[in-house]
Amino acid sequence: MEQLIYTLLAYINNSLNKDINYHVAKGLLEHIHELESFSLESAADACHVAPSTINRFCKRIGFRNFSSMRNSVNIPVGASIHEANNTPLHTNELFMQLNENLAIIDQIPTEQIDRIVQRIKKSNRIIILGFEKYQVQAMELQKKLLLLGKLSECDTNFFKQMDALTELDEDDLIITISIQGNILSSYFPFIEKFKAAKGQKLLITFSGELGKLAVFDEIIQCGKIENSSVSSYTLLRLFDVLFYRY
């Protein structure tokens, strides 16, 4: 469900005109908790449009039709090989977890950071993949690279992210942010496309299990999986380290 929410929010946030597709996205968001039980006709009624308009909109945001979009609602919030901990942290615990992650970043060998920086500099095209809430951090990395004079791509549509993988060559770079290992989940048909993609592959994660996939050329483990609650802050620090070594 989270990925669909982010896709719909991105659509309305990036709409220059409040056209019919804007109102469809808004209507679907307003009924997001009912979508799983909706038929095409009931979704059309809720959005005050024709069923054909709903199907066209679904194709526009990367789904085959309304049914495939509705099925995506079945993906649990925080779907991962690890259960997400949504319990608010006490301030002391937050700082403790963050400090543990920062210590891990400090232990990343300078040689690895410099190797990644050189790879970024040499890459013709850079695709940044951020899933669910990490799309925000992916865009922050995109902004930092732009300030360094390196243009990169960071699409907020999951399906367009997948399509971009088929367009790369050996001189390109894929930077993937997957903190808890969502790309291993059966809910996301990601790994096969990733294996087939050309270009260098960099993974930023907290999970030690992702290294077993043997599909990444470089892996940065920048935190503990049990400290995922402070992952957003941790990623910002890691990006600062890359920025200052560039």
From TrEMBL:
Alphabetical list of Gene3D superfamilies matching this protein: Glucose-6-phosphate isomerase like protein, domain 1, Winged helix-like DNA-binding domain superfamily/Winged helix DNA-binding domain
InterPro entries for the chain: Homeodomain-like_sf, HTH_RpiR, RpiR-like, SIS_dom_sf, WH-like_DNA-bd_sf
Membrane-traversing stretches: none
PROSITE patterns: HTH_RPIR
GO-annotated biological processes: carbohydrate derivative metabolic process
An example molecular function term from Gene Ontology annotations: carbohydrate derivative binding
Domain HTH rpiR-type: 6-80
Name of the molecule in the record: MurR/RpiR family transcriptional regulator
Lineage summary: Bacteria, Bacillati, Bacillota, Bacilli, Bacillales
